[in-house]
Amino acid sequence: MTDPDPTAADAFERAVEALAGRRIAVLTGAGVSTDSGIPDYRGQGAPARTPMTVQQFLTDEGSRRRYWVGSHLGWRRFDAARPNAGHAALARLEHSGVASGVITQNVDGLHVRAGNRRVVELHGTMRRIGCLQCGQIFDRRDLAARIEADNPWLAGTTDLPLGPDGDVAPEAVGDFAIPACSVCGGTLKPDVVFFGEFIPAEKFREAEQLVRGADALLVAGSSLVVNSGIRLVERARRRKLPVVIVNRGETRADARASVKVDAGTSEILTRLAATLPAPH
Fold first, then answer.
1. Which are the catalytic amino acids?
2. Of 267, 270, 275, which is closest to residue 8 (Cα–Cα)?
3. What's the pLDDT score for residue 159?
4. Shared-domain flag, residues 133 and 116
């Protein structure tokens, strides 16, 4: 594949030089999933977002009802998304021994579905729902079936613009029946980190461990606005590891990167997977 942009072509070659022969930890953001039809948070054309805080979700029933309507309507399309070429490339890099695993800020589960075996989902996953009272865990697909049975009017709802977290902004919430735990009747919450919540300490430690055991860090599709991403970049820099960033547009760590490739993640990751040799 010939890159028409000589600047990007040079950056790609320098990225290969920085990563070749090294065991790589990978950090991904929403930009990796845009080619699967899931929009980015901050990229060009990204929808305006007013994220619901965990306080709103827990304390206000009206907010919780709006969340569940939007989350369920978005889930239909979110669940239909499929891994793209970038996801497949990262799975190949892990299977070949080049990548030690993937740390992701995404909640879409596409790295797991693409075949990556070691995936640290920093912000959780939409695949699971947990009860805040008894701790029971539910599969999202089972809960979705229950929501539709309890709220048949949702079947006629028109498609709305999908958000990066797999939700939409509902036009109306009607008399939506909020799902409750079928074991104890408690409050259900998706296994994701809401705005205003902290990433679980054990998850961040797992991500740190992956970076600690690597010889380089590859950041793909993240503007690194979220502090957890910057902290991992700093962990790598302190160990003097090469840091390669692949992202369209600026990131918070461009000045700290060994190499920045301003290009789409699917194309560049596919090329890296075809180019990088397994470490000795």
1. 123
2. 267
3. 58
4. no
Whether residue 181 is found in the same domain as residue 241: no
For residues 131 and 181, the answer to whether their CB atoms sit within 8 Å is yes
Cα(35)–Cα(86) distance, rounded to whole angstroms?
8
Q: Are residues 100 and 212 in the same domain?
A: yes
The pLDDT of 32-43, averaged and rounded, is 80
Domain that holds residue 156: 46-80+127-192
Positive or negative torsion for Cα 258, 262, 264, 268: negative
- Tokens 């030690």 -> residue: 100
* Residue 163 CA from chain centroid, whole number: 12
Residues 6 or more apart whose Cβ sits within 8 Å of residue 24: 93, 98, 99, 100, 214, 215, 216, 217, 218, 276
- List the end-to-end C-alpha distance of the chain, in Å, as a whole number: 27
For 49, phi then psi, to 5°, come to -125, 140
Domain edge (last residue) among 192, 209, 239:
192
Q: Within this chain, do residues 65 and 138 fall inside the same structural domain, yes or no? A: yes
* Domain final residue pick, 192, 225, 244: 192
Read off the pLDDT of residues 59-106 as tens digits, 9 standing for 90 and up: 999 899 988 988 888 787 778 899 999 999 999 999 999 999 999 999
d(CA 276, CA 272): 6
Backbone angles phi and psi of 61, in degrees to 5: -65, -35
Question: Please, are residues 106 and 40 in contact by the beta-carbon 8 Å criterion?
Answer: no
Q: Is the per-residue pLDDT at 20 higher than 90?
A: yes
Cβ pair 31, 40 in contact under 8 A: yes
Same domain (yes/no): 98, 109: yes
User: Which residues, listed in sequence order, are joined to residue 147 by a DSSP beta bridge?
Assistant: none
Query: How many percent of the chain have pLDDT more than 70?
Result: 88
DSSP class of residue 34 equals G
How many domains would you assign to the chain? 2
Is 187 found in the same domain as 111? no
258 and 186: one domain?
A: no
